[in-house]
Write a structure and sequence with these properties.
Largest interface: A-B, 60 and 60 residues
Strand content of chain A: under 5%
Distance between the termini of chain A: 56 Å
Strand order of the largest sheet of chain A: 1-2
Shape of chain A: globular
Oligomer: homodimer
Chain lengths: 407, 407
């Protein structure tokens, strides 16, 4: 197959075939997983494991697939930001913030402790802890929306908390990456953290207003699809800015999306154009993740045991900590919130990839984090369905006694 | 600036910055050109010349920009195909075919002759001739639509002929590429040509019907945005297939688009999702074209003279040959058709790039072809406006005495 991939007469035929194989595999597995009522994301990662060097060895990660994957994850985070109106978060703000903070501290400490006990270095332990922090807004939103409960108070708390989680997780990543980059320099570290926090605060507080004011001007430009193009440019621009500040490019992309969230609310074209880009590039990101997994690391029983333990800790810490933070809503709703926060998905994996790229974590820990991210994503949906299905409904609508919803 | 590009802490920060600079430059120049009522395409190519090694040297073509550009041109040709319903061409079929054939032979022979007289090798002459063949459907369609005359008989003839031109041009490219690839082997050449023709005929005759029949099935798939995803997969799949047959990937992409043209007619979402991909990747293709131009080749007066001569021949041969083929419509309409066929745009440039990639043509000829492609694109629109504006109108609509339009 490698020979097959390398042939073809036109220049670049090999990489076109690789892209084609990656997309076909991703979409076949996505279709299969959706039919089994499992998240497509998990199927697409598995597609990468299958066609990658671990199993079939049809396609291997190259500099090009890595670059396309990075562009893919940047636009993925942009679209997640695009669905994150600051105002929606502010509405369930206090409770969501509490859930988010509990849900960041517990997994980080849990993961870090387990790794230290296991004998890992401090920086490895911190990377694994960081990878366990962020709840996947994308997966959670998709599961809640497929159950038709997006308007429930608990769903709003989950999404709000997941977003705050993402921001906190990415900030922790900024700090940890800085720690990993060289000798610990607390002054630099403080500067980076301060820069990251001010950058986040500045863009999330000012961004939406600036974009709203500029929207008529942008739409009057002569250049075609100017609103979408402006979104692309801000997304890339803030991603680059983020890297210069010393934080991950995806933070910039996420903030750019959030800045466009309100202005693009009544613009379905913008969302469809973004979905065109993400439907093409995100599967490449997910397949590329799977392709980087070396299944042989699991021949070592210790690695398997660690993966299971980390997954267990990842589920229990989020479930208990977030559930506790939402205890005032009653045990069932607390359970919904806790379980809704369990899926880790893309951000955890990005953390693992950055760790792998910096050579801070090795193939074994990358495999462990990948198992944790995929397993938490697969575990949560069926329980969420149970927790929401058993709730009383009136006229097919959830009864919402807490009354935090506004419609 | 090179140092600046290489810094940034996160992996890949350099290429993100390069993409950002390319997109910003492209869109600024596009905006400027649109305001000057010039085609945005020319502005985006010029943006590449400006930021490229020839002038500012901010960004240089790399393997990654080349790959992204190739994906971009593939999706560009897919969207051109998407707007090419086989039925529309069949309606003005005979006249359009005549215009197309005249408009292929004259520039090819003209270009080839001039190059031979100039002292170029046979294969160089053929590459330049091939680059002069194909009329740019994209640019022509955009100019005609901005004048509101897309429904005029002449506009339909122009578009139909431009499409046939593209197909003929790409077939000639297949043959010439094969000639260039090694010693002339007429058996292989015949096989390639036969394969290319059958591939084109097969997909354009059967493709639309197959896709139309499969559309309900595709839309019932569980995978999200399944119709768009199917389009992506066919586009990449036929591009890869084309390279294995021995023709350019863009032929496959164009045919894939044509197969989806009818089925996607009433699906604005599909078009918007494709526009998301092309708005991101086509500027990278165009900027990358400009970045590959070495302006210093024009220090040689002979190169400047050749560029001017080739441009002159490119304009005159298309204008006269296509005008003659449309003479029965009266001189003004014949002029509209002739002038409408002049812009070369993307396909000519792709031919030049393939020639450069195969080392069949050198920097000098690449520059000459680029000047020809951009100049013909800039020359035609003002004359077209004159030729259509002076035509009699009734109630603001063109009088169309030929009666070939159906609405």
């Amino acid at each position: 197959m490698k020979v097959f991939l390398a042939s073809g007469t036109a220049p670049g035929a090999g990489f076109l075939l690789a892209l084609f194989v990656m997309l076909v595999a991703a979409k076949l597995m996505a279709e299969l997983f959706e039919r089994l009522r499992q998240p497509a994301v998990a199927g697409e990662i598995l597609a990468g494991v299958l066609i990658g060097p671990s199993v079939l060895n049809w396609v291997a990660p190259t500099e090009l697939t890595n670059s396309l994957a990075e562009i893919g994850v940047i636009f993925l985070l942009f679209t997640v930001g695009l669905e994150t109106k600051p105002s929606t978060i502010f509405k369930v703000g206090k409770r969501a913030a509490l859930v988010a903070i509990f849900g960041v501290i517990a997994p980080f400490v849990g993961g870090w402790l387990l790794m230290r006990v296991w004998g890992a270095s401090g920086i490895e332990a911190m990377f694994v802890g960081t990878a366990m922090v962020a709840t996947s807004v994308g997966i959670t939103a998709r599961v809640l929306s497929s159950m038709g409960v997006l308007d429930a108070t608990t769903a709003r708390i989950i999404l709000g908390a997941a977003v705050i989680d993402d921001i906190l997780g990415l900030l922790i990543l900024a700090v940890v990456t800085n720690l990993a980059a060289g000798a610990v320099n607390y002054a630099t570290l403080a500067v980076t953290a301060a820069l990251a926090v001010s950058f986040t605060a500045f863009v999330s507080l000012i961004g939406a207003r600036v974009i709203r004011r500029m929207t008529p001007g942008i739409e009057n430009l002569f250049v075609s699809h100017s609103f979408f193009v402006a979104g692309l440019l801000l997304c890339l621009g803030l991603s680059v800015a983020a890297t210069y500040i010393g934080v991950a490019a995806i933070i910039g992309a996420f903030l750019a999306g959030m800045a466009f969230a309100e202005a693009s609310e009544d613009k379905p074209t913008m969302h469809q154009q973004m979905s065109g880009v993400t439907e093409f590039l995100v599967p490449i990101f997910l397949v590329n993740i799977g392709m980087q997994l070396r299944l042989e690391v699991f021949r070592d029983r210790r690695v398997v045991a660690l993966a299971l333990l980390i997954t267990l800790i990842a589920v229990v810490t989020k479930l208990v900590a977030c559930g506790l933070a939402a205890w005032g809503l009653g045990w069932r709703r607390a359970g919904q919130v806790g379980m809704g926060m369990v899926p880790r998905g893309e951000v955890g994996i990005v953390v693992a990839q950055i760790g792998l790229g910096l050579a801070v974590i090795q193939q074994e820990l990358y495999g462990v984090v990948l198992v944790m991210a995929v397993a938490t994503t697969l575990i949560a949906p069926p329980f969420l369905r149970l927790l929401y299905a058993s709730e009383e409904t009136r006229n097919g609508k959830l009864i919402d006694p807490v009354g935090l919803t506004d419609d």
